[in-house]
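Our preliminary data section would be incomplete without showing what the modeling component actually yields. Below, a chain of 333 amino acids is followed by its predicted structure, encoded as tokens that our downstream tools consume directly.
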Amino acid sequence: MTRPLICIPMGDPAGIGPEIVLKACADPETVSSARLVVAGDRKVMDRAETYPGIPGLAIRVIEDPEDGEYVPGVLNLIDLDNVDMERFTVGEISGMCGKAAYEYIEKSIELANARRVAAVATPPINKESLRAGGVDFIGHTEIFGALTNTPDPLTMFEVRGMRVFFLTRHVSLRAACDLITKDRIKDYVRRCTEALRRLGVTEGTMAVAGLNPHSGEHGLFGDEEVREIFPAVEELKAEGYDVAGPVPADSVFHLALQGRYNSVLSLYHDQGHIATKTLDFERTIAVTNGMPILRTSVDHGTAMDIAGTGIASAVSMIEAIRLAVKYAPNFSA
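Predicted structure:
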């Protein structure tokens, strides 16, 4: 079986991205399951190889992913050569690095859109650096949405086989409550179900989490369940969707982990983030669904405070690549 070709944008040059990419590309199990090509800057990768504990890889600059030498000990790099090392400082937020990080992502998406790679697995970027670099996107999801013509990508977390979607993302909790409507829930369940099918998940029940304690106890602790969530679930069932809810949030994630549900629709950002990251912070991986290409990602930051020390863990980066390998066959041309 041919190992899928996965592109990894280098991430913010000043953060831990270059370090964890090097570690992931040197991991024997990862290399045995995937062909990896990095979109980045040769000079920054050379510098990262001098950090303590970083494995030495032979960096091979290529123009096209098919030109790579996918063997242990070799890092295949598409060199965008966009960092001025005289102005570069490890661990420092800078517009130059934010713009460079965007360009690595842009190149990766270009390759994926053209079916030159099977998936993209992303290390972290820095929102402040993006802003300083004049990049008009707040993060990865928005960049991928724009460059794949996907107006509203779906974020899914996966950890230990538990999958969690998010009805709302980066809005205040007060605003999130206003967004929990019957029509929005129905739209998301339909789209999440289609996204799961695209990943090859065709069996099982999706659970819609409750919002209030004990899912509101029939209106005693808030009426969102009675007014919006339960009617949405009932109408979806009538349409033939395998969905349950509202399931109290204090138990729904445990039940999903046990296999009762194939996924959970979390109603707001922290409801799902706390559940997944408490279970296993490093192995909680984001999968951006609803796009014509596959993207997986670490779900931690650039850790500027430890960048350049060599101590950053590559577990999340390795796990993001593993998930890309798992789901890539469903996104082949």
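The mean pLDDT is 95. The first helix runs from residue 17 to 26. Preliminary results of this kind motivate Aim 1 of the renewal.
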